[in-house]
Amino acid sequence: MEELFQKLISVNTDILMLSLLTFFFTVEQIINRASLPPNRIPHLLHGIPLFVGYLILNFGLAFMVVFCVNWIVENQIGLFNQIQIPYVFKIIIGVFCLDFVSYWFHRGYHTFSVLWRLHRVHHSDTTMDSSTFLRFHPLDWFLDNSSVLVACFIFGLDLNIVVFNFILYLPLFIMHHSLFVFPAWFDRTFGKIIVSPNFHKVHHHQNQEFTDTNYGNIFIFWDKLFGTYKTLPVSEIKYGLTEFDTTERQSFWFLLKSPFINIKRNE
To answer: Which of 206, 192, 231, 11 lies closest to 127 in space, CA to CA?
Structure first.
């Protein structure tokens, strides 16, 4: 078990991310060719520079996150540094803890206007496919890593658990934004535990009643427990934000500057 864990966390996450994204985007073009939204390549090209900016910021400031997490461990801060439990249980519970904290942070992104200005870049995509995975404002890095640091501080999690959680979540995250509609049996079985791609697509509905739901990353029961769970047939979902539904507002430059522009949210 420990050997498998060490092998998983040693995976190059950048190569894994690129491989998964390339696979899903390519398969979408083949299987869903008849139903693909138009202008897939320009759509992809608007997302790539945003994500490159996100990665540059991530690489530039990653040492800060590593330093903070290691400092937490060295100073025995957090719940699991105060009690003795087998490390395997700490890993399993740690994944739940990271997802729990990320649920509340994600909910906060939709609640507080200053955070929504950054996060709405991800929701701006009106023709969602797996390349929507790339559509994050570079400054969104601070939101993602703040969630991780808070979880590590409260629960006393180490860097290996953080990396393990990311590797678990990455394939699901890309599937969340793919064009594929998963069969009903998938939702009836796996959907009782995880946030299935069909459930997450509801979160990208342009109607705010649905946009402000299904905040979980991996596990669906946070939404069910805290009253933010909704379902809707994928065929009835209209993606994106209506205030971004123009060619100009889908461009890289507009998305990059959009957090600093007062854009009225259409209900």
So the answer is: 206
